[in-house]
Specification:
232 residues; alpha+beta; nine-stranded antiparallel β-sheet; 6 helices; 37% helix
């Protein structure tokens, strides 16, 4: 039933017009930054570079799939849709279909980076955090009060101190000023940025630029931490 309802929504005139407008925006942006736009790509297509992360499911659908290399980093951009998900109690669902713009940037470091999820508090209830628990940072120094007010940090409690080595107070200040509407996931050697908004050139530019900046930061910190451990 959910699949039929989803199909009917997609062929509604208003949604067709919205997808057409989105395609033009995505194509314009990817042309500007030198990415290759593939549109809808099946998972078994040779051009498909899977975008995983917490939004991937057996019912998720990807549109406007684009890939490229920016600042020497492999970047994938996609618009992902999914049907409502059931909670652990199987009694409640999220409100309506879900939608994300996703930028995925592959890290260069081969060192183990802990799983990290940074969620704006207004979106925290919609995120399935089965891979971590809310963390309180501040072992090495105070964080800006606004950081705790705006974001919830998830990760493995046993690696909280290590996570703080990546999400320093300086990085927290950048998240406050530039990541207000974005959720961040660092998992399996990839930085994912999520935005649950309609695409625009400005949104896509911020999404990709911020993902690239964070990937470079994580790479540097991972190498520095590995070097420090080697000296012990």
């Amino acid at each position: 039933m959910n699949k039929v309802s989803s199909t009917l929504r997609r062929i509604a005139p208003s949604n067709i017009a919205k997808r057409t407008a989105t395609r033009k925006i995505m194509q314009q942006f990817t042309e500007q930054v030198g990415m290759v736009y593939f549109g809808s790509v099946k998972q078994d297509d040779e051009n498909y570079r899977p975008i995983r992360g917490y939004t991937l499911s057996t019912t998720s659908q990807d549109d406007h799939y684009s890939v490229g290399t920016i600042r020497q980093y492999p970047v994938t951009l996609v618009e992902r849709h999914d049907s409502p998900r059931f909670s652990d109690t199987n009694t409640d669902t999220t409100s309506g279909p879900q939608h994300w713009l996703i930028a995925a940037v592959t890290l260069y470091t081969r060192h183990d980076v802990p799983y990290i999820f940074v969620s704006p508090r207004q979106h925290a209830a919609t995120h399935p955090h089965y891979t971590g628990r809310p963390l309180r940072l501040g072992v090495f120094g105070p964080y800006p009060p606004e950081f705790d007010q705006r974001f919830v940090i998830y990760g493995e409690p046993g690696r909280a101190v290590e996570i703080e080595r990546y999400l320093t107070p300086d990085i927290a200040n950048v998240l406050i000023s530039h990541f207000k509407e974005f959720s961040v996931e660092i998992s399996g050697g990839v930085v994912y940025l999520y935005a649950s908004v309609q695409p625009s050139i400005e949104v896509l530019d911020a999404l990709v630029s911020n993902a690239l900046w964070l990937a470079a930061v994580i790479d540097v910190f991972a190498e520095q931490l590995a070097a420090a451990r080697a000296r012990l």
